[in-house]
Amino acid sequence: MRNFESGSFDFYSNREKPSGGERERASELDDIDLRPESEVFQDHERIDSKDLDDQLIALRDQLSEDTGGIIHIDIPAYRYDFADNPFVGMGPNRTKTYEISRYVDIVFLHRFMYQEIIVCGLQSRKFTNEIGRAAFIKRIRETGGLPLNQDGSEPEVLGRAFVPYMPYHTTDAFFRLYHTVMPRVAERPHYPLDVWLIFDENAYQEVDGSPDFRQAYRLRRGFDRRASLLGVAQIN
Description:
This protein has one domain. A hairpin with a 4-residue loop joins strand 1 and strand 2. By secondary structure, the protein is an alpha+beta fold. 28% of the residues lie in helices and 17% in strands. The chain has helices at 20-31, 37-40, 52-62, 98-111, 133-143, 172-180, 225-228, and strands spanning 64-65, 70-73, 117-122, 157-161, 195-200, 204-207, 215-219, 229-235. It has an eight-stranded mixed beta sheet with strand order 1-2-8-5-3-4-7-6. It is built from seven helices and eight strands; from the N terminus they run H-H-H-E-E-H-E-H-E-H-E-E-E-H-E.
């Protein structure tokens, strides 16, 4: 099976693109890794070379969902010093985005099985500090998403339809955009993509307004914004 980190993908499509030098540098950083692929993962479903069913059961047992509908996902590999970006560089210490996204993909696949969903990842620390993160997430759950601007000029959601096993329709595309592509790759402190919003795809319609590979959406007439937010996931 072809993995999601092989091949080429234009995160900016036909929209405004970074300068050639910036994109070349980001591409070089993203491609360099001295480990063989087998040391990182076997295929999309497999977490490592052990029995897959046992691992999925263990992963589900580690998850918890509180009374507010917040899904808590513990990923030790996604704990790092914000002063550095562990997803770029050379050698065995570099973290591949797929090492993180595969866990999130499995959670979404099993938690929202048979549902058509839109996923949207964001950096909570761009909105609040560690102390205020719980209140920030609770507010998202209560209102059905991020705060809307008053004039309605911006889309309500910048996300992507979640299609398991399809390149760039899983969470890895978001992790790569935020951790390996300029200009975000150079941001310091370098914050994790730790909060994920899961929307009912049937409640939203596609609109223009996305600066990159993500699709812009607006709530369809007749749908309730809060009810259309199916879940919120928090990593670590």
